[in-house]
Design a protein that fits this description.
2 domains, about 35% helix, about 350 residues, alpha/beta, 7-stranded mixed beta sheet, single chain, 8-stranded parallel beta sheet, Rossmann fold
């Protein structure tokens, strides 16, 4: 049987969870993280070509459901994603997602994919891409505070892209730390389980915070942060949800994806709208400086942005070509005569 290719117009290639996992193992986790980072960097370097808008969010007491759209003028993409911190108590994922790419010229979808697994990878790849540019030179140790679903991906991305050799773990739930440490066994990382956030940050040049509770929390206090570290704050990602003491924000040089979204959802929601931030694409383009001195504290206030998902979907589209790692999905009506949709319906009666 000939494997259909994603360029065929009669169907939409659909990448299921199973096929996504097969694709990841086919490529290799470190290689895929590096590949995703390359695609994200490529799209950040052409940032001004993209349509940009804060994600469309529907908030509830339990969580949030969001749509994240963008287009570079030739390809349109969006992601559907939820964030429900209490889901784990019911045995459900905190975050689930799927995404779509479409051809702008015709409006036809060209890829439909699971994005729960893919979002975990692209989030980690983005963190490591930014850390590669902003973290202290020669950084080898990361503190990972919050050892949930994202922690292993963050650790492996920092290893593959930034060259860290040690990760220091802490979570208020010791079972989460044991889970993360077990999953990272054999990765080549020196994994240290810690009893507190203060212990975890000892000797770390990169500090990643990734907690799930939807509240104004203080995971890092001002006196915990010394000069020269890079903070990768990825847990504060919706209104009313933060992780850092405001005093840290006033000491740090803050880098963001898209200010209009980050001021609503990120750590900087604690600051005024006029507080200065630097867009990361400006650093890549040379329009703004990154780390300016060894003593500087840099902070990536990451909330996730649609262009990163667009990049990840592009990467999947390009890497499933020539494989059988997708299903031909009968998603689009395709009448013989484009004007005769009703006739197609009638003929289906048999």
């Amino acid at each position: 049987m000939t494997t259909p290719t994603p360029s065929d117009k009669a169907f939409v290639p659909f990448v299921s969870v199973d096929h996504m996992m097969q694709l990841i193992h086919h490529i290799g986790v470190p290689q895929m993280l590096r590949g995703l980072a390359d695609y994200i960097e490529e799209d950040f370097r052409r940032w001004q070509l993209f349509d940009k808008t804060p994600r469309v969010a529907s908030h509830s007491a339990e969580g949030v459901i969001e749509l994240m759209p963008t287009s570079d003028g030739e390809v349109y993409g969006f992601k559907y994603v939820n964030g429900h911190p209490s889901n784990t108590a019911e045995g459900l994922q905190t975050v689930t997602a799927f995404g779509l790419l479409a051809d702008v010229a015709s409006g036809y979808p060209v890829l439909l994919s699971e994005m729960t697994m893919l979002t975990a990878l692209r989030t980690a790849a983005t963190s490591a891409l930014v850390a590669r540019v902003l973290a202290p030179e020669g950084a080898t140790c990361m503190a990972m505070i919050g050892n949930g679903a994202q922690s292993e991906f963050q650790s492996l991305a920092m290893q593959a892209i930034c060259g860290i050799t040690e990760v220091r773990l802490f979570d208020i739930d010791p079972a989460a730390t044991r889970k993360c440490a077990a999953n990272l066994a054999g990765s080549g990382l020196n994994v240290v389980a810690c009893g507190s956030a203060e212990e975890a940050i000892l000797g770390a040049q990169i500090i990643t915070t990734c907690t799930a509770d939807k509240q104004y929390a203080t995971i890092l206090t001002d006196n915990m942060i010394g000069a020269g570290v890079h903070i990768n704050a990825i847990g504060g990602d919706c209104p009313g949800k933060t992780e850092l003491a405001p005093a840290i924000l006033h000491r740090a040089e803050i880098f963001v994806e898209y200010p209009e979204q980050t001021r609503i959802e990120g750590e900087i929601q604690q600051l005024g709208d006029d507080h200065p931030v630097t867009e990361f694409w400006q650093v890549l383009s040379g329009d703004a400086p990154g780390r300016r001195s060894p003593e500087q504290i840099t902070l990536f206030d990451s909330v996730g942005f649609a262009i990163e998902d667009f990049s990840a979907l592009r990467y999947v589209r390009d890497n499933i070509r020539g494989t059988a790692l997708f299903h031909p999905l009968d998603l689009l009506a395709d009448p013989d005569d484009p004007r005769d949709l009703f006739g197609m319906l009638q003929r289906a009666k048999g």
